[in-house]
Amino acid sequence: MAATSGPACGRSSGVSDPPAASVIIVARDRRDDLEAALDSLAAQEGSFEVIVVDDASRDGTPALLAARPGVVAVRREAPGGPGVARNDGAKQARGRALVFLDSDCRALPGWLGAMLAPLGRPEVGAVGGAEVLDPLERFPGRVFHFVLTSPLTTGRIRGGSGGRAAKYRPRSYSLAVRRGDFDRVAGFAPMRHGEDIDFVTRIAALGLDLVHAPGARVHHRRRRTWAGFAGQLHAMGRARAMLVRRDRVHMEPLYLVPPAGLLAVAGAAATAALVPAARIVAAILAAVLLAYLLAIGVAAVRALGALRALALGPLAFLVQQVAYGTGFLRGLGGRP
What we know:
Elements: E1 2-4, E2 21-27, H1 31-41, E3 48-55, H2 61-66, E4 71-76, H3 82-92, E5 97-101, E6 105-107, H4 111-116, E7 124-132, H5 139-149, E8 174-178, H6 179-184, H7 195-204, E9 209-220, H8 226-246, H9 253-274, H10 279-304, H11 309-332
Parallel strand pairs: 2-3, 2-5, 3-4, 7-9
Antiparallel strand pairs: 1-4, 5-8, 6-9, 7-8
């Protein structure tokens, strides 16, 4: 691992003065997205430095960082995964707060200030930002955003305060913690997926609050293809199951909906095939599901302003449920 330092960004009074915050970005083969993320930080106010950990990229990322003298560049010659790479970035950080931004996110004006403000309260341990729809994103990406943030889907708490079905836990796409609390929990675990949920859960175990900062807005560029979206959700489901196996505190009702739904549909179909009398019940359940999918489609049209969302919204929801559910069941069984 090698690091190349540059001067602090933002409005630091000097290179020798520790900045208020260190913004840490991990990137692997996401050169174009990373460039957009770095450009978005130019609009942020305050004293901060920017640290980019290149997790063994092969797409020209080192050249991009070499052309950014104001960025602290950390290069890993072998990929370590997001958790390990974020820890590497933290080792180089001088800021009193560590603020993590994913390479596929673009911070909107005021993002950094809104992320840091809650940390002024001693009871707050971690702060999560808000994902907002990027109107310039390709249509599939906007559909995926809708499914992962709509009140009608299991993704709502990604941008809210949580509820009875699941607690709010900030995700690493936009996450801020005090340096001291980061050190108290020894940073991120060396996990490929779910490491951010594990991390903030350990922060909460210190007796600190996890809060959502709605003013800390980012455009989160999700997977751009249906196959990529399905693969991402499958990995998320598997990560949740692995977290459950690691600590039962992660066994929350909301995340059991996709695997339970898959098992219920398979069971109902099998029963209806074997027991004619059960077909009426199966038909009623199918009608309820279709009505729910129609509600999702109507909500998608309203949110995205396009009639084609009437079909693509429900389709994306089904992909989400199947991919996440199968990933969860796979992870619960301990399969790699």
